């Protein structure tokens, strides 16, 4: 035993010395192997459940899981410093440029679209750059990992080399898009499109750690990663699934940005910002489906127990038939199962990029419903699809909606929202640009897509760009041309000569009455445009519509009015008021109607403001027939009449000294009415006074200076005026004549549309006149009430109470009678 003990101990000691050395050799061998190039992960041919995805072996899956779970820079990666300070970067990006966090997705999709544009352009001359299979599919994919709080955006675009990643993602002030445009203008070099710029850094609004995995055809696959802490790292990618070509961005979302892991939220953002991107955008979306699965044995046994209550004969028959069916069909049940598939988010095509001649009316209507989110199946009244060239190039589609929103004019001057959307290279920028269209055209729907506007820093400050002024001018001109064309194509708007030609066309029935519908919905906007837009005032005036004394209830334009003017008529006559019915009975129209002059009715409150700005049209001045300055031709007897009524006018003016009357004159506008009150040419009319007094914050003391001077115009042919003149000649100091003159003035004041300052005084004069016509003494008084009335009231109330008590007593009989009737029925 001892003979074997000593050798065995020596053998164990030798082994202890040898093992550490062997471990060091194994470690050294492993290190040498790690320095050797790693073979790319193996890609299986089967794609599996993912339609355009890649299936990997277990090693790749394990490495990718480790890569996804990390939130720190890789140890063996090459590290770099940002060119700009991180504090300045975050201050500019978060505080200044991007007030809305949602736009990070817009920026990433825009960059992905640029990369796809680049590879597509290169494929025109070299088809091999696209590759084969899934690599040839030019698309954008969005995927969620709720467990690890990761949002991934992948494209199959041009991709980036290691040098591109360092150069483009490490420089804050560089924008790939603007640099590409500048490069194209100078040298025609396309190598800059698809690279990232400042827009990329908006990812740090929602993420605290970002990975950019990119594969370019000329380089290996690399990973760029950063926590926005002043440094970033770039390393060769041996952990993730091979992309083939393109870029995948993984955002490790902040805790406060978990809302972007919701599928519905992402769908909403894509629909809002990137709906018209040229390339398909897919989302890896969940979907519940019904699936037939084998039923459990326990459930089948429960079903057998419930059937024991049946008769034995029926059981035997059912068992025989059941055995046969069981042999043919196994028992199954339907369960809800969650599946995942790629869902297309941008199925609406950008029709504004096509030739207008190739787009059908149905396509325009469908596009309008999508753009305006209006699904009432009503066609827009008109649309304009055009391309502008020159200093600023853009494409636009404008629509006139079939109906006006209910709140169109409620917050007209306070609302910044516009119905016109601005796109830059099919990327939605904003719909809150007042600079694109003036407020009076904010009822139009549509979009503008420009390739010349910058898509870089301060996208939200684009409204400061000088190009927008040029775009605005062209949009206004095209919008007004579209509305004018709508009127020209309406058979109801044309002259009698043109109506026959238009009615022969096939579209006449469809376009008939369209402009009248437009005017009823948006006519006030055209009037506001005349007030606000001095440059286009004459063009807007051509679009005005109104009713007149000769239009028979139909709308008339200024051009049609001028074509019907009498020979020698120099002014366009109009009158303002609250309704057409009221204006038709106005005394101001009496002589004009008799002489066959046409007068325009303005019944909208905004018309008073409108006519302060629209002074003339086609060298014809506007004349309010309720103001001074009305000229209807000269009468040979005018001078004689003025002389004969000169004394009456002077007496009447002195009698109305307390009534703020500027003058009393002979009228040339009255036929059947004794007198009217007119205002000075540049003062407020009676209708305008009423409008201003009804304002919530109006101050009557400050309005006094704007009230026009009132002039009493009398009808020298009226019998009341003639009789009054004779009475004045007999006794100018007769107090009853003066009272009659004041009453006539107050009556004319009210008939002319003014508000009486003292209605009580006017009423007392009317009652006095009624007394005299009924031969009642002016000293007659009202009889006094008797004091007994109050006692009678008390007795009547007591009687009422007693009656109510007696009515309540026989309630039982009253209740039983209906029930008895019900029983009989």
From TrEMBL:
Residue ranges, compositional bias (Polar residues): 795-805
Alphabetized Gene3D superfamilies for the sequence: 3.30.230.80, 3.40.50.11260, Heat shock protein 90, C-terminal domain, Histidine kinase-like ATPase, C-terminal domain
Residues binding ATP, per UniProt: 107, 111, 155, 160, 168, 174-176, 195-200, 247, 459
CDD domains attached to this UniProt entry: HATPase_Hsp90-like (cd16927)
GO cellular component: endoplasmic reticulum lumen
Compositional bias of kind Acidic residues: 290-306, 313-324, 781-793
Major localization class: endoplasmic reticulum
Pfam family, one: HSP90
PROSITE patterns according to UniProt: HSP90
One Gene Ontology molecular-function label: ATP binding
Keyword Nucleotide-binding annotated: yes
InterPro entries in the record: HATPase_C_sf, HATPase_dom, Heat_shock_protein_90_CS, HSP90_C, Hsp90_fam, Hsp90_N, Ribosomal_Su5_D2-typ_SF
SMART domains noted in UniProt: HATPase_c
Region (Disordered): 30-61, 290-333, 487-509, 776-825
PANTHER family: HEAT SHOCK PROTEIN 90 FAMILY MEMBER (PTHR11528)
Name of this protein: Endoplasmin homolog
